Amino acid sequence: MIKVGVVGYGYSANTFHIPLIESTVSMRLTGISSTKSSIVKVSHPSVTLFDSADKLITSGNIDLVIITAPNHVHFRLAKLCLESGVHVVVEKPMVTTSAEAQELVSIAKKRALVLSVFHNRRWDGDFLTVQKLLKNNSLGEIKYFESHYDRFRPTVRQRWREEPGPGSGIWYDLGSHLVDQTITLFGLPQALTARCLSLRNASKTTDYFHVQLHYSEHEVVLHASSFTAAPNSRFRLEGSKGSFIKYGFDPQEKQLQNGLMPDQLGYGVEEKAQYGSLYGETSVEPIETEMGCYQQYYQGIASAINIGSRNPVNPIDAVNVLTILELAEMSSRERKTLPVWGHKR
Predict the structure, then answer these.
(1) Which of 79, 106, 213, 285 is most buried when burial is the number of CB atoms within 10 A of its CB?
(2) In the structure, what pLDDT confidence band is assigned to residue 168 with cuts at 50, 70 and 90?
(3) Are the C-beta atoms of 126 and 289 separated by less than 8 Å?
(4) For the chain, how long is the longest CA-to-CA vector?
């Protein structure tokens, strides 16, 4: 049994990590570090409460630590885990720079420990549907790929994600998912052109981005706005055989919020009204959304720890994601297209 400790007890820990850990048969939630002691004691009376992340990590009673703390402390805490001989999963973005990510990769490799980042959106049903369409060559030769994560949040909130600093703003928060999905599909682009802006009143961080990734045979657009009250235009793919258009969001986050667990009927299943459409020259076909399955991430982590199976998210992927995040910010500041291939990583 893998003894798991969670650093932080906020939205991410409660919505994603703790429910998914508790639904993984080879894992046991053993410790939580949080200042919300009274809440934790009521919700998890059998779990050991630590008043600091460092004490949890160095307790000697934890096999795997999940870091859900603010982005700027990810590197220090993940490094402490690895140096203490503890496997570690870090919320995205793994750290705030590609150099930090590369350093963690080197330490994990040297110590033969599992280091991974929670890019759970690889297991979104709509993304799995896109992968299936590409595998089946349903669209022919892809020429254009567009991925959105739009929301209606026109007012700045008082939370750490919206405070200025390394790794803050929606480009690092939401953009890291979109970049990871794109690299999973197509690998690294040759170059990029980006606009990362603060458009809301009193905003101190990026709350809008429009990033073009330039490949030799196709173009990719990654986009997010805080002013989209209409349904999210999630994916648009255009190829030599036709187009695929998908609206809405994967249902798993809301299902987990509502207490539906991965082993329960209906988990990961999207309503028919949300299915995407495959357009041919003279036809339109609804495409059933694949079943979402976030639980496969922690099942993969357990297998990687127990029997040395493939890491479900290789930390090298996180290095590449952070490289794109950094270059996009630089492109936006300098208002020019920047090369990716050949960039020192």
Answers:
(1) 213
(2) confident
(3) yes
(4) 64
The structural domains of the chain, with segments of one domain joined by +, span: 2-118, 121-293+325-338
Its sign, for the CA torsion 196, 151, 69, 89, is negative
Write the class of the CATH domain 121-293+325-338. alpha beta
- pLDDT tens for each residue of 283-313: 999 999 999 999 999 999 999 999 999 999 9
- pLDDT for residue 166 is more than 90: no
Tokens in use for 314? 């290789």
Structure tokens at 82: 């690895």
- What's residue 164's pLDDT? 76
Phi then psi dihedrals of residue 191, to 5 deg: -160, 170
Specify the residue for token string 């048969």: 25
**98-111 and 315-334 are packed helices; what angle lies between their axes, rounded to 10 degrees?**
170
Q: Please check the confidence at residue 177 and state whether its pLDDT lies above 70.
A: yes
Q: Give 191's strand partners.
A: 214, 339
Alpha helices in 159-294 (DSSP H): 170-173, 175-186, 252-257
Question: In this predicted model, what pLDDT tens digit does every residue of 39-60 receive, in sequence order?
Answer: 999 999 999 999 999 999 999 9
Distance of alpha carbon 114 from alpha carbon 311, whole angstroms: 7
Residue 161 has pLDDT above 80, yes or no: no
Q: Model's pTM, two decimal places? A: 0.95
Distance CA 129, CA 135 (A): 10
Query: What are the structure tokens assigned to 272, written together?
Result: 């028919």
Q: Is 262 exposed, middle or buried (0-12, 13-18, 19+ CB in 10 A)?
A: buried
Buried b (16+ CB within 10 A) or exposed e, 272-298: eebbbebbeeeeeeebebbebbbbbbb
The pLDDT, as a whole number, for residue 345 is 41
Cα gap 300→177, rounded to integer Å: 19
Alpha helices (H) in the chain, listed in sequence order: 11-12, 18-22, 37-43, 53-57, 74-83, 98-111, 125-135, 170-173, 175-186, 252-257, 295-307, 315-334
